[in-house]
Amino acid sequence: MLYRTLVLTGTIACAGDSGLEERGPAASQDSGDSSTDVTSNEASVAFDAIQLAALSDSAVAFRLRDSLTTAGWNAYVGRAEADGKPVWRIRIAHGGDAVLARVIAFALRASTASVPAVVRDTAERARLLPGVVGPVRVNAGSHGMFSRVRWVFSPDRRTMLVVEDPVSIENEPVPNGFLLASDSSGRRFRMDSVWDVAPSPDWKHLAVGRAYVVSAREQDSLSTAQWEMLAKRANMPVRDVRVGAFPASGMAIMIGFAQPGVVHLDDDTAPTLFSVAAGWRVGWNMDGSRIAAGGKPGPQIGDDSPATRWVALDPTSGMPDGEIPAGGRLATVSWINGPTIDIAVRLDTGQRVSLSYDGGKIESFGGWIRKNGRIIAPGVALATTRAGHHLAAISPNPDAKEYEAREMLVVYTIR
User: Fold this and answer.
1) Which residue range(s) make up the domain with 401?
2) Is the pTM of this model over 0.85?
């Protein structure tokens, strides 16, 4: 729709308008059309708009604005002057920051022949609703050759835990990243470099398995200094780290280590890590009184290998409380598996996704996410919390290198 609109109006290569001088407010009102959108007054705020075109024909500009509005965009026309002649700028307003503006402009460049520009403007605060924070990337660490995506909701669906699980070409262990977002508390917590994460049955805590990976580089084993540095990072004795370490690659000398910890969701304190050589896999016992921390992976070393043994830990002190027998019951986590983000395969954005929340609906199709019919961000919607304040999605990645996937797993916060 946007591509056809821009082609029909001949504005594809017209986003830039260097040399134009503003006349009045940054987005002034056209006296010939009382429906011009953006004005400047005491309630105005500065924001980063996306400029699609600058036209000398006001009628064409307003038709383009109307067409964009029909398609779901929050479009408006602002008047400026160039060489003493009026020029009408067609821009898109949104409720996000410069990060979101950049991602929107990148997605527009990829999906149309236009050359949108991010420009500073002002608008009435009410016009920018809903406010969008993000995209916030779920995993800021390594992403492997492809990444598996999964998420889980609290029983009331007000809290959502989203995980990116990267996989290497040989299925070697690669640390994960996760992001937890809550409607109730408004908290958003992200952590990289974990082997595993699991919510407690009451969703008041997260058990985490902190991941460490150390390369021997050109040597055939870790040096004494490397073992000491790893032990220092884990705040544990070197002998305990050596006993708990495991091979993390079949192609190079790399050593992995796991350390369990807990995140208390009712406060903003940092994760508490325990001095125990476990955490390759984590979980909880049925009543949530103990963390279940899995030891080394085995019998084969792979990203999805099970733990060879389990130990029970007090979630407050981290003190071991005996081993959990093989086959012992643990609290169930009902993970929902999403699409795979692959370096070699572009994600299909054509399928329509519809997510309901209290009071409305979030949809995505054609590469754009809409809230109650209005476009708010690029990407494919995956899951949303009950109040619709937090949305997991796959978004275009404007910073992707040649060896990285063109999409990224993110969470948008929608006010």
Assistant:
1) 130-194+332-415
2) yes
- Report CA torsion sign: 152, 284, 246, 277: positive
Rounded distance between C-alpha atoms, residue 64 and residue 85, angstroms:
20
Tens digit of each residue's pLDDT (9 = 90 or more) over 306-356: 999 999 999 999 999 999 987 789 999 999 999 999 998 888 888 899 999
Of 114, 129, 144, which closes a domain? 129
Q: Are residues 60 and 167 in the same domain?
A: no
Q: Please report the DSSP string for 74-141 in residue order.
A: -EEEEEEEETTEEEEEEEE--SS-HHHHHHHHHHHHHHSS---EEEEEEEEGGGGPSPEEEEEES--S
Q: 166 by DSSP, 3-state: which?
A: strand
Choose among 377, 387, 361, 374: nearest CA to 411: 377
Give the rounded distance of the alpha carbon of 238 from its chain centre: 36
pLDDT for the residue numbered 18: 36
Number of domains into which the chain is organized: 3
Beta-carbon count within 10 A of 315 CB: 20
The mean predicted confidence, pLDDT, of the chain is: 88
Q: Are residues 314 and 282 in the same domain?
A: yes
Contact 75, 65 (CB under 8 A): yes
Structure tokens, 331? 């609290």
Residue 334 CB neighbours (<10 A) = 7
Angle at 193 between CA 190 and CA 199, to 5 degrees: 55
| pLDDT at residue 251, rounded to an integer | 84
